[in-house]
């Protein structure tokens, strides 16, 4: 962790305001950087930024490398002369197609270099994306055998037949990565660092599994033998059955974790800091038989997480990592985290159950923690507090000193006062929003990932209030 006490805000870019269904990397993203700087915050934390699969979850991306095309700013494309105008009545896809045609007529000088540098994932992703569209959105497992099994002749024929569509995907990825680097440079100039998310698993229906099936525990038909998830816990009585295929860890270890080093290398080019989602899965994973209907059936299996973390540390010594160590955490998991010196997470919404030994209570925090009021998987603090049993709510208020200030600010202040070196606050909590603004409810697939900021909510008065609080608690 850095020597100084820092504060950040959790806001996924898709939640930024704008005329389309999702926010993007355009002007509102720059305004958010300015809001953070005005508030004295030096960290912008977000969720995974890859292309989401079915259900819209950023944790079920169809690529571990690619950027989400929905995040591409159309204004940016217009400013560079690849679009004549941005019309909200037309879809983002229609705009991207028009821009791709103009781009292809005279691509910029750095485009060929981008394609060559990213070819190790870009070509597989482009062909996967095009073939998935050709087959009406079907999973790769249902494609014709030659394409499903990556037979050389079938892939060559597809590349020739769909050359224009492949060029469009390359253009979109160039636009995403170029826009991202410009936004990141702008954030750095304003003293803001980008904090990203590394999901431990990838989706079965993804370019990654299609391109490297040998890296996963699949049967002879390409179907997962075991899937990922967690056993019953605080979030879900039946556990969570995510459905991602489990890794063939012996293959990764034998190959020096090259697949992982490439994956992390892409993210290291986007972010200054990464949260390893489901860090507990680097010590042991919950192996759910693929035919099991819920996550209640399964068993733990140890994995070579120490070897992977050592490979990541050696390849990216300057990349800061944070371990998401929530849920069922064993002494072995904590030993792995501490061996590599990784900060863990504490969540104040979890603090008021149990007794004074609860690790989420501020008096039990450590400097190498990252403290949150709540995460993207929690309800907003206002809604959470309103739903507490009366005795638990009273205990929380007594712990917080019986504040006269309305929720969620007493919990925000507790996070900022914590000894944890980094405090991260969801934007919904800073705005004092209710449960309708919740980002995700674990174990459900409907109504998630859709919350948006309203125009004008990044107010100067809110930035000023937050800056005053950060100065009071010695954060920046």
Structure commentary:
There is one protein chain. With 476 residues, the chain is α/β, with parallel strands linked by helices. Helix content is 38%, strand content 12%. The chain contains 18 helices and 12 strands. It has helices at residues 27-39, 74-79, 92-105, 111-117, 119-134, 145-148, 152-161, 163-189, 207-211, 249-254, 258-268, 305-315, 331-339, 381-386, 390-399, 409-417, 427-430, 460-472; strands at 6-10, 43-45, 193-198, 226-230, 240-245, 273-276, 284-289, 299-302, 320-323, 344-347, 369-372, 422-426. The strands form 2 sheets. Strands 9-6-3-2-1-12-11-10 form an 8-stranded parallel β-sheet. It has a 4-stranded antiparallel β-sheet with strand order 5-4-7-8, with no helix packed on it. Strand 1, helix 1 and strand 2 form a beta-alpha-beta unit. The protein is globular. The two termini are 14 Å apart.
Mean pLDDT: 96
Radius of gyration: 23 Å
Largest sheet: 8 strands, parallel
Strand content is 5-15%
Stretches with pLDDT under 50, minimum 5 residues: none
**What is the general shape?**
globular
Number of helices: 18
Order of helices and strands: EHEHHHHHHHEHEEHHEEEHEHEEHHHEHH
Alpha-carbon distance between the two ends: 14 Å
Strand order of the largest sheet: 9-6-3-2-1-12-11-10
